[in-house]
Specification:
This protein is mostly helical. Helix content is 75%, strand content 0%.
Length: 194
């Protein structure tokens, strides 16, 4: 009976991702992440015995895979459709949260790491960004874009969208995302050959 009422590991990770997307990593304790996920602190430490850094790393990976699944599906229809889905996903997050939530991957990536150390969560953020870039670049190549240009465009898309999400939160408006969407779609449409 107690086993059924225990929160799932995934629910704790998803709750942590949401909390980090709203407050950043430094401003969020493991206790607050557990509370946000409606999980007992003991369960949280059971699943994440290494504490906050382990939970944050899993939250980054969870977000990365969640976004990658959407990208993979939409990129089957081509890079423009994949881009539109990527933009729509982030637009929905910032608008539905009333501009309180952004990207937990970005939130972790911009944290000040201890001297001479790259925390696991920051390393996971780099891997997630690389994964998103690789998915976009592969779709661009499949549609006739030269490999170097495809890689550069993919980096531009991820960087532009992540930065624009932060701008939307600061400005309390989706307009920066809409403006960025228009320009990125034009760039990608011009780069594909088929």
């Amino acid at each position: 009976m107690a086993e059924r009422s225990a929160p799932s590991r995934e629910r704790i990770v998803a709750g942590a991702a949401d909390m980090i997307s709203r407050r950043g990593l430094s401003a969020t304790s493991i206790r607050e992440m557990a509370k946000h996920a409606k999980a007992p602190l003991g369960s949280t430490y059971h699943y994440f015995p290494e504490g906050k850094q382990q939970l944050a790393t899993e939250a980054v990976r969870y977000t990365g895979e969640w976004v990658a699944r959407s990208l993979r599906k939409e990129l089957e229809s081509g890079p423009v459709e994949g881009l539109r889905a990527f933009l729509a996903l982030w637009r929905r997050i910032v608008v539905e949260s009333d501009f309180h939530a952004g990207c937990p991957v970005l939130a972790v990536a911009i944290e000040e790491p201890p001297a001479d150390e790259i925390p696991p969560a920051v390393a996971a953020a780099a891997e997630v960004f690389a994964q998103w870039e690789a998915l976009l670049a592969a779709s661009l190549r499949e549609h006739g874009t030269e490999a170097e240009q495809a890689a550069q465009l993919a980096t531009l898309v991820v960087a532009a969208v992540e930065g624009t999400v932060a701008m939307c939160r600061a400005k309390r408006s989706a307009q920066p995302l809409d403006d960025t969407a228009e320009q990125l779609q034009a760039l990608i449409a011009g780069a594909i050959k088929c």
